[in-house]
Amino acid sequence: MSVWLPTSPCTPEGCAGHQGRTAGLPRAVLRLTTALALVLAGVLCAPPVRLLPAGPRHAVVRAWATALVRSFGIRVTPYGSPGPDGGRLIVANHISWLDIPLVLAVLPSRMLAKSDLRGWPVLGRIALRAGTLFIERDRIRALPATIGDVTGALLAGGRVTVFPEGSTWCGRARGPFRRAAFQAALDARVPVQPVHLAYLRGDGEPAGEPAFVGDDPLTASLWRTARARGVRAEVRLPSTPPRARRRHPGSPLSRPGRGRPTGTARSGPPRPSTTGSTQAPRLPVPCARPPDGTSPRSPSGSPRPPRTAPPRPAPGS
User: Fold this and answer.
1) How many whole angstroms separate alpha carbon 298 and alpha carbon 21?
2) 24 CB contacts (<8 Å, ≥6 apart)?
3) How far apart are the first and last CA of the chain?
4) pTM given for the model
């Protein structure tokens, strides 16, 4: 694996176990059967659905995606306004393979996914027919072409969802956002809409079952999610559409963009600084410690040094 690829300290053993009671075997099998039927229906119906006008097409996609998430016993709770139609870069944190249908249940859009998804059984075919854009994470030379494809989709008036963390996290912590995808929004001069995803238990704490982290096999993650009980998914959107939101005078996002009409704020994140990197805020609860007792690895992949107490001065010194 390339050293520049994003990494996460989350592990299936430390972060993605069952918490509390689990659903019975018959219910879990029924959930998987229902989900498989919905996925097959998506494969068959994707070509004609793409021919529909935007309004009916988005309604069908939202209904299908909501049903797919609900088939695993997970309720979808959206907060905020989806905003107007038109080109927009949707930026979300990344926890699970369920993130894609979860975003589609609220904001139908094209996805930017890793190229490995094309080889997944059934799901890969759905992704291709849905117009998914793919990024080859192990070929950095292909990145400019991928950003160009995203820019073209935005200029055509489409919405594109990206997961700038580049890797899945368990939901108790988040990784830094990579800047490359934001360049597409700057080139296309379209708004950036943040979306926060969360899978929660009844007490409001993060639910580990849907997390798809580390070397977790897809089959194991599917079965663990089907056995979960009392999990709900939250999709939090801005309370006002990105185009109508007022910027504070001192905010970097309030500076007018070059070549834009007077009074229109430049959309997207601040331009990269040479003095530091832009990172996503981290949740206060740390990621679970791996079961072998070792310390979690930093996002760069290097182990964090252990914390030691300062030496005490010798008597008389």
Assistant:
1) 32
2) none
3) 51
4) 0.71
